Every structure is written in C-alpha cells, then in structure tokens.
Structure prediction request, 169 residues.
Amino acid sequence: VVQSGRREVELRLGGYETYRTSVNLVDGGAAEVDVRLEQIVRDGFLDVTSDPAFAAVYLDGRYVGRTPIDGLRLEPDTYRLRVEREGYTPVERTVRILAGRTSTFDATLLPELGRLVIRGDVPGTQVFLDGRLAGTLSTFDADLDAGSYPAGEIEVTLVAPGYGTVVRI
Prediction:
C-alpha cells in the first residue's frame, strides 16, 4: 500500500533510456502511467555515394559494399574510408562516426591518367595524338613526353620528312 500524495516514478531497463515522471495518488485510487521506453542509440550510421556509382567501399581495409550505401551501422569511432572503381583514381578520407548520427560521404572519382612517352630516332618527326600536334622529336633517341591521358585508346600519328606516315592505336 502506497500513501496518497505526489510520488516520483522511475523505470529502468537495460539498453533503454531511464523514464521518470510523477503521479498524484489518492486514497483508495490507482494511477496509470503509459510509457514507451526509448532505446539507447549506441551506434552511428554512414551513407556513401559516388560519381560514378557502383564503386567499391572499404572501411579500414574491409570491403563493406558498393555505392550507394545507405545507413551502414557502425560503432562510434574514426575510420579510414576508401572508395574505388576500376579505371578511376581511388578516393581516401577519414570519417568520424558519432552515436545516433549519420555521417555522409560523396566521392567524385576522376579517371585514372596514364603518362604517354613517344620514343623516336628521326629528328623533326611530328607526333600527333588523336589528330592534334603533341610535339616534335628534336634529337636522335629522344623521348617526347606527350602528357597524361585517361585510360583508353589514343591514335598516334608520326610524320617525318622523307619517311612514310605511321599511324598506331
């Protein structure tokens, strides 16, 4: 039997927020308390998108899926995030996951670039790449650094005075 008057009520359950309220009891009466306990949020979440999509996502070196990833549940901590797709330069960042929060990361992947060097032994040879003049070989056994290009095919045309034109892809 509880005496009448104002009473404090506290409900505790492991994994849930403690609920507190007060009720006013009267002699011979009953008080009803309608309670919905809130679960304690211990994890955080991560959303990852990429352009282009369907890139592989790694957290601390462990594969977790392909973009887009929505609501990946993680313990609060700092993680090393890597987003990669064949033919593109990978993107790496550190992400911090906070309890009860969603962190987002949008990776813009850039095409991988390769270096193209033309080696020739005829001075004055003009080098064209996809129809554009890239440079001229100036000395015997010279290299022409033609720059960086995305992965793929490039048409190389060599034009030298007194020689036939050579075209290669």
About this structure: DSSP finds no helices and 17 strands in the chain. The mean pLDDT is 88.
